[in-house]
Design a protein that fits this description.
By secondary structure, this protein is an alpha+beta fold. 33% of the residues lie in helices and 26% in strands. Mean pLDDT is 84; it is low at 159-165.
């Protein structure tokens, strides 16, 4: 993205808001707060950050929002209600992506549903394939925990150094680390791995005997590996 010299607009991110209308599903605001419809269904760029369950002051009072930061032709921030289907489908899709995939360009698309519902679908812009998600049991999902897990993956990936690809040692709290460990428990069970198989893989791959000894980046890598094995087994 080149820098234009001379007079121009103020270099600040453009907020994008989600709302199902008759002919569009998202919009931006002009300087005088008028809605400008966006008729394109998709935005492609590199995700740089996410803020989940962020308290924002609105004309109707305080509201919890999810802000997704994307760098495209300019910086954008997609803002949606944290309890909306758009935000929930966004989190489900981002959770399916690996640590490495989150560093690559992705396409965020709006998909209109019934009534005022808008879903989010993420595509790989090279393969044109969408990220498959399941809504089975979505009422039982711990959405705050899912949001924290996705935040760690995205924000941790962006703060990792390009040389070591290692996250800061304080990137994952003990609670979030326990959530990742629980996720590996579920994957290992679905794969029918024995404890011995798990220990042998950890020793061979990371030189460590236990998941609790893995670094933040190694733990994320292990989660991604198990998820891939499940995908290949279907």
């Amino acid at each position: 993205m080149g820098i234009k010299l001379g007079f121009g607009s103020i270099p600040k991110p453009q907020y994008i808001f989600v709302s199902k209308e008759s002919d569009h599903c998202w919009y931006m605001l002009s300087d005088d707060a008028k809605q400008i419809p966006i008729y394109d269904r998709a935005l492609t760029g590199i995700i740089t950050e996410i803020e989940v369950n962020k308290t924002v002051e609105t004309s109707q009072g305080e509201s919890e929002k999810t802000d997704l930061y994307i760098l495209a032709d300019r910086p954008y921030i997609i803002r949606s209600r944290s309890d909306s289907y758009f935000s929930k489908s966004l989190l489900l899709s981002l959770d399916e992506l690996s640590y490495e995939q989150l560093l690559q360009p992705l396409t965020i698309a709006v998909s209109p549903g019934e009534r005022k519902i808008v879903f989010c679908t993420i595509y790989h812009p090279v393969t044109y394939r969408s990220v498959g998600v399941s809504w089975d049991g979505h009422k039982e999902i711990d959405w705050p925990a899912l949001g924290k897990r996705v935040s760690i993956k995205i924000n941790g990936a962006k703060t990792a150094t390009s040389d070591t690809r290692e996250m800061p040692t304080n990137a994952i709290t003990p609670e979030i680390r326990a959530d990742f460990i629980a996720k590996t428990d579920a994957y290992l069970s679905q794969l029918n791995w024995t404890p011995k198989q798990g220990r042998e893989y950890l020793q061979q791959k990371y030189g460590k005997k236990s998941r609790h000894h893995l670094s933040e980046t190694e733990l994320l890598d292990f989660v991604d590996y198990l998820k891939l094995q499940l995908t290949l087994s279907y």
